Amino acid sequence: MSGKNCVAIASDKRFGVKYLTISMEFPKMFQATDKTFIGISGLATDVQTLMERFRFKINMYRMNEERDFEPITLANMVSSTLYERRFSPYFVEPIVAGLDKNNNPYINGMDLIGCSTTACDFAATGTPEDQLYGTCEALWEPNLEPEELFETISQTIMSATNRDCVSGWGAVVHVITPERVITRTLKTRMD
Length: 191
Known about the structure:
The protein is of the alpha+beta class. The chain has helices at 44-65, 71-84, 129-139, 146-162; strands at residues 7-12, 15-17, 20-23, 29-33, 36-42, 92-99, 105-110, 116-119, 171-176, 181-186.
């Protein structure tokens, strides 16, 4: 979700197989650079595999270019990595969220073969995607300050996970500002 010179990304913490909960601390978001995060929903083994591939590619880019990825470049790298496996795809839907060099928010969502969509307001993936889009449309406003953005994205994810029985067990929210990344953990439905 984008705000005024800030962007937020959130995910639940549940890892499960259908209705069986296996873990309540499964990471689905990873910090790629100081101002950019990748969030991935989908098959857990593919999430872990892709995060290792992305970590490798990010480190190689830093070594070769001696600079960090811009969010749009990172989104293109994620998209091309997914498209490489289009005939036997990874079962994931990534979102890249961050601030560019001018501290403008950047959000890009993708499907499992890397078809990307840049959003100026918000993007959502995962099992509660329908509930997330409905709540985002109701709560999001342009030019939210970091604290307002945190409150909006928190209410959105709590509302959506409360209406989806295969997500929840807490949530993690990262609000990325030009100065720092604010990380907070939320308590959500745990049943």
